[in-house]
Each structure stands twice: as C-alpha cells, then as structure tokens.
Write a structure and sequence with these properties.
By secondary structure, this protein is mostly helical. It folds into two domains: 319 residues; 103 residues, no CATH class. 78% of the residues lie in helices and 0% in strands. The protein is built from 17 helices and no strands. Helix 1 packs antiparallel against helix 9 and helix 6 crosses helix 11. The radius of gyration is 22 Å and the shape is globular.
Length: 429
C-alpha cells in the first residue's frame, strides 16, 4: 500500500535541500550582481535565478527522473561514475568543506566575537557537523527540521525588510547586459555540482521517509520546488538590496563588505548579528550535507570496507586539518578543478533530459569525452598559465569568452559519437 505524501515531509526535505545548496558564498554574490545591474535589476534577477536556481534544481529533478547519477554515467563508461564523482568528493574534502569552516568562522563567528580562537573554533565546528552527520539516515532530516528553519527565518526577515523599505535608489547599470552578467554569475557558483554530489543522499533521505518509485519522484519534485522558492526569494532580495546602493558604491567594493553594508543599512547592528548567525548556519548545513555525501560515496565504492561510521569520523578530521593549515594555498591549487568538472556535469545533466530519445550510447560517449578534452585544455588558463597556441585555439571556439566554450565541443562530440559508435560496435563483434 502506498504511503500518503505528507506536506511536512516535503517541506522539511525541501528545506534540507535548500540548506545544502545555500552556502555562505551564496550570500555574498547576489548583492554584487545587483550593484552591477543597477536600474536593470529585474533583468539581472531573472538571469541569476535562471542559472543559480534553475540549473541546480533542474539537475536534481533530472537525476530523480533517471534514478541516479550512476545510471546516466553508465552510458559513457561503467567506471565513469566512480572516477568523476570520486573527483568531486575529493575536491569537497580538500576545498569545499574546509572552506565552509573558514568562512563560517571568519565572517560569522568572528564577526560577532572578534577574539574567537580560530583553531578551537574549527574543531568545535566540525564536532557539531559530525554530530549531525553521524546518523546517515537522519542527517539531512535533522538539518531540515532544526538548523535550516532558523537560518531561513532570519534570512527572510532580512531580505523582506530590504525589499519593503529600500535603502536607496538603483542607478545606471555598470554592465552592458545585466541579464548575461547575472546569468554568468549564477552559473559560476557551481551549484549543479552540488546536485551531482548530493543526489544519492537526497534520494536516500526521501526513501527513509517511506517513499519509493513515482512517489519518490513526486516528493523530490515538491522538495525541489520548496528549495527553489527559498533560494529565489533570498537571492532576489539580496540582489535588489545591492541594486539600491548602486549609485553610492563602485564594483571595486569587496563582496563581503558590500553584503555587510546593505544589511547594516537595512536593519542596523542587530541585523548584522542575524547575518553572522545565518552565515554560520549556512556554512554548517552545507558542511553536514557534504560530509554525509562523501562518507556515503566511499562506503559504497569500497563495498563497505570503509564503513560510513568510520568515514564520517575521518572526513571531519581531514577537513579540520586542511582548514587549520592555510586554506588559501589549497584553494588556489584545487579550485580550477571545479571549473574542470562543471561543464562535464552540465553535459551529463542535458543528456539525462533526453536519455530516452538518444538512439545509442555513442551520443553520451562523444559529448562527454569531447567535453572532458575541452576541460583539460582549458585547465592551464584556469590556473593563470597562458600558452599562446592553446589560448588562440580555445579563443576560436564560439562562446568561449562567455564561459560556455564547452557547448560546441559537446554538440560536435554528440553528433560524431552517434555516427561512429554503431560502426565501431559492428567491427568489434
């Protein structure tokens, strides 16, 4: 007998989804996009919401429809899932999770208590993260019911106050195309990777509530819409607040400084305290979700040789060490790999949409492998290393200067793969 879908389940799972996507970095970038958009803030808002909210939520809905990331990846190669997702998981341990601690403490805790000892704070931060993550089945449930509602209420109060009582008048935009600038800003957050990273944990959370099959897809859709609504309101409110001070500040102002300025102007010092608490919670909820995902992945891939209960201890220890030893160097060395993986994730997402209509696996293989080659060729530039011949070659690719250089290689690979793969398969028989 099918279980009736409870609205509270959809709500709290949706809030957990929202919390996992919404890190402290997501607080910082919308005001700057608004500042640059100025009086064209509406176009800027549409662009940011399309890429910063639409793409990640679309990705998780597609993955829910297809069943799993692994199912799509198997069309490329039976080992592709392990290699690709494994790379993302390792990047989380080296960059993403430690960065949540650094930002949460420096912008959040030390924003209220300037004398807070950094190393002690890092240790306490990951102890709290471990407490929530140690029970795999209920980790995101706890986040959705306990931490996220507090964060969401605070953020909603801040952005609604800023929208109802504007802190200034938007000036002329600082960019030629507010929509495109904000679209690229939302795109570069990399939240589509979060969908791939967290898909298994998201679906496990839904299953633990007793939902399977079509019901799972319906709950996933409902939770995705809840997450999208929260993200849209908060992103949109912060962008508008940034637009309201566009006549007073240039785009040279730091992202964090701008965020603090608009919040202080809107609600005074008490709003700053609310912001700092929101930063801590945003970082913590993201860390909990990613620790859970990393531990779950490596338990599965090692066939239980490394059990979840051990990994959920190891991961916080590793990330504590990384966070305590100068994060800037590690970020500079590893962050370009997020730019490497992002186009691949987007291509897999698009292939997942049309999975049933693609006549053979050659389309999956060609599109993905051509994108991988493109991403490798672009990697030196992401590190700031410019090779004359390579730069000229990449510059010839349409849309490269807009951050979408992967599109043409993916399409070309898709077409070539569809044609060539059947011929190669016949020869192999």
């Amino acid at each position: 007998m099918k279980k009736n879908i409870k609205a509270t389940d959809v709500l709290f799972i949706g809030l957990a989804f929202f919390a996992t996507y919404f890190g402290a970095g997501n607080l910082i970038f919308p005001p700057m996009l608004g500042l640059k958009s100025g009086s064209n803030w509406a176009a800027g808002m549409i662009g940011m919401l399309a890429s910063g909210v639409g793409l990640p939520i679309l990705a998780i809905l597609i993955l829910g429809k297809c069943g799993s990331v692994q199912k799509i990846s198997e069309h490329v190669h039976k080992k592709f899932y392990t290699v690709f997702i494994g790379m993302i998981m390792l990047l989380c341990c080296c960059v993403s999770i430690p960065r949540t601690a650094a930002v949460g403490i420096e912008m959040g805790l030390q924003g209220v208590w300037g004398g807070a000892p950094y190393l002690v704070s890092v240790i306490i931060y990951f102890l709290i993260a471990f407490f929530f993550a140690k029970d795999r089945g209920s980790a995101l449930d706890k986040v959705g019911k306990i931490l996220t509602p507090v964060m969401t209420v605070i953020l909603l109060i801040l952005v609604i106050k800023g929208a109802v009582s504007p802190i200034g008048t938007p000036a002329e935009p600082a960019v030629d195309n507010a929509f495109l600038n904000s679209f690229l800003g939302g795109y570069s957050t990399g939240d589509v990777l979060v969908s791939f990273l967290m898909a298994t944990v998201f679906f496990s959370t839904i299953r633990n509530k007793g939902y399977e099959g079509e019901q799972l897809k319906k709950v996933n859709l409902g939770a995705g819409l809840v997450a999208a609504a929260c993200l849209a309101i908060i992103y949109g409110g912060l962008l508008f607040m940034g637009a309201c001070v566009s006549g007073e500040f240039s785009s040279d102002i730091g992202n964090a400084e701008l965020l603090l300025t608009v919040i202080r102007r809107s609600g005074g010092q008490i709003a700053i305290y609310g912001l700092c608490l929101s930063v801590i919670l945003a970082c913590l909820t993201t860390a909990i979700g990613q620790i859970t995902a990393v531990a779950d992945f490596f338990e599965t891939e090692t066939h239980g040789k490394l059990p979840y209960k051990i990994l959920v201890i190891i991961v916080p220890i590793v990330t504590t060490v990384v966070a305590s030893f100068g994060l800037d160097t590690i970020v500079s060395l590893t962050s370009p790999w997020f730019s490497f993986t992002y186009p691949i994730a987007l291509v897999l997402m698009l292939l997942g949409i049309f999975e049933k209509f693609i006549p053979n696996d050659g389309g999956f293989k060609g599109a993905t492998y051509f994108t991988v080659v493109y991403a490798f060729l672009d990697l030196p530039a992401e590190y700031g290393v410019h090779i004359g011949v390579l730069d000229k070659l990449l510059g010839l690719i349409p849309l490269y200067n807009y951050g979408f250089g992967w599109v043409v290689p993916a399409v070309a690979g898709f077409i070539i793969g569809l044609v060539v793969y059947p011929q190669l398969s016949k020869k192999a028989q």
